[in-house]
Specification:
CbiD-like, 15 helices, elongated
Length: 393
């Protein structure tokens, strides 16, 4: 599969090209930069606009074979001469990253800022401090590196301002985690390696860690987790709780527990569909079907512990979906004891994964049957979550 290049790589390439055109007066229609991964990025330069004291241009984002919603977006860099008054204002406002502050000691000086379609940070716990443009540390360093190379080649010792913008950014951001993370007004300029690996799980894991870290920095020692939107919808429809501050962990339940322990959380509530959580009840901590799919075997085993007759156990083993298996348990009158046993084991394996450092509770549901079971401590969670929701409204 074909890899692509991050928004950070696009911004760095556009910035280098714009700086080159500003400082040399020459046209640059293509550029090559080296990504942190060591892979060269050959970018075509688009929509070049020149003025006496600034140049802007764009690079089209290519996400490769990864299903990236920013693929096709144009990432612009506008490079302009930075006047002393403007530079001093940026320094005094605190809007500089550590590397930008360091550059104040050794000319030339490069200031990186966000423009239209680049989000702005409004919550703690992200890569950038509150108030800064959502241009992460590595992309900032990439942009500075590429522009500094041009400055040195052109023997320029002054100050430059680099403004990164993405005209489609605000629209695209609605399809990302940014609104949940407290990044408003556009997308983030991201990337630690400079390349996009097709179907990489790292971006998901990074997002989970950011959401957990944000919540921890807000002072919470407990966190509600769900594999996806269905779990959040279930809580909203069944209990009236809007878990907008919960964390979506996808299939990575074990990794989420690991991160929660590392960050110092003491309690976790996991709400999920029986088709996902039955795997956790068997000690499976990555619930993707390619990792493990023993839903019917586990359901049959739990049913056997409750003395379900052999004929129905065989029917469960032949089911294609967990909801179908649930209907067999319901008709047998064994649904409640089986699901309660499943809930107990889900909590047992979560706490085992946490090494006893985290208290776990869970709620199991099925789309056609609603709530199936909840662990003993869930009622206390309703009090906690209710108070939190009241404070936020």
């Amino acid at each position: 599969m074909r890899y692509g290049f991050t928004t950070g790589s696009c911004a760095a390439a556009a910035a280098q090209a714009a700086a080159y055109m500003l400082l040399t007066g020459k046209t640059k229609e293509s550029i090559t930069i080296e990504t942190p991964k060591g892979i060269l990025y050959h970018a075509k330069i688009l929509d070049i606009c020149r003025a006496e004291e600034e140049v802007s241009c764009a690079v089209e984002k290519d996400g490769g074979d990864d299903p990236d919603i920013t693929t096709g977006a144009w990432v612009y860099a506008r490079v302009s001469y930075l006047k002393n008054a403007e530079r001093n204002r940026d320094i005094e406002s605190g809007n500089l990253s550590a590397s930008e502050k360091a550059s104040e000691k050794n000319a030339p000086r490069i200031i990186v800022e966000g423009g239209t379609g680049v989000g702005r940070v409004t919550r703690k716990g992200l890569d950038q401090p509150v108030g800064n443009a959502a241009i992460n540390r590595v992309p900032r360093e990439m942009i500075q590196k590429e522009v500094l190379e041009v400055c040195r080649a052109a023997d320029y010792q002054g100050s430059l301002k680099i403004e990164i913008s993405v005209p489609e950014g605000e629209r695209l951001a609605a399809q990302t985690f940014n609104p949940r993370l407290g990044i408003v007004g556009g997308i983030s300029i991201l990337g630690t390696s400079g390349i996009v690996e097709p179907m990489s799980t790292q971006a998901i894991l990074d997002t989970i860690r950011v959401e957990l870290r944000q919540r921890r920095e807000e002072g919470f020692t407990y966190v509600a987790v769900s594999p996806g939107n269905y779990g959040l919808d279930f809580m909203r429809q069944t209990y009236g709780y809007d878990l907008d501050q919960s964390v979506k962990c996808s299939n990575f339940i074990g990794a989420t527990i690991d991160m929660a322990v590392e960050l110092g959380f003491q309690k976790m509530l996991l709400t999920g569909h029986i088709g996902k959580l039955i795997k956790v009840a068997g000690g499976i901590m990555n619930t993707h079907s390619r990792e493990a799919d023993c839903r019917m075997e586990l359901l049959a085993a739990f049913a056997a512990r409750e003395n379900l007759e052999t004929g129905r156990i065989c029917r469960i083993l032949a089911c294609a979906t967990s909801e179908e298996a649930i209907s067999i348990l319901m008709e047998s009158g064994k649904l409640s004891p089986v699901m309660n046993r499943v809930a107990d084991r889900v909590c047992y394996y979560m706490e085992s994964r946490a090494g006893g450092k985290l208290r776990a509770d869970c709620i199991l549901y099925a789309n056609s049957f609603g709530k199936l079971a909840k662990s003993e401590g869930v009622e206390k969670w309703f009090t906690l979550l209710g108070r939190e929701q009241a404070r936020r409204t």
